[in-house]
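Table S2 (text version). Query chain:
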Amino acid sequence: MPGILCHNCEGKGHIACVCPSPRINNSNKVSVPPISNSAQTPSPQHWLMDSRTTHHVTPDLDNLGIHYEYQGPEEVTIGNDSKLPISHIGKSSVVVCDNKFNLDDILHVPTATQNLLSISSFAKSNQVSIEFFPGHFLTKDLVTKDIVHTGPSNDGLYSLPTLNSSITASYTASLGFGMLVWIIHPFQLFVKHCHLALLSHHLNLLVYVLHVLLVRFIKFLVMILGFKTPSL
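Corresponding structure-token output:
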């Protein structure tokens, strides 16, 4: 499994910018402004849980909501002692089964082959505990003790399927806009037909348009709130 080697103290499990040991050389540290990541992918990302690293690792820059270009000397060391360069560092927030979680301390390693989720960092950032069982795992809120996520074990590996929160927000906004148009259109017809009905005294037409508008509004509430009601 990959590990992280600190260039400052040559210890494992952290990088120099968070090293507890006295700094030996700061000449390689470069400070750059944050860059907002606008690229988006709609498919879920699976993060393999790793208990031996303090940082998340991903080959996909799209998984970092906010990132900094990294020009330090640290590298990620994998099991065969090969060293992989770190391109960016940053953080993000993800959605797992309607629950939003923070992913801090993400290392973007373009040559990595999979996403690795640091269990310790994830638990600390989100104030949760993770319990592992032979066929599944549970994620619990530390305060309420409620189970916020349950996931399976696949071939002995535990993974977390996530969606980038900005993607989810964009999708929700698009859905909401579409539903708003879906409601406004019959409302516009309603105003038009109200005028015609009043002019021609066709009250049946007015009642019909009212019924259509009411039915659409109820269905809109059902879809947004997730209620189950008899079909209209």
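Notes on Table S2: The mean pLDDT is 71. The longest strand covers residues 99-108.
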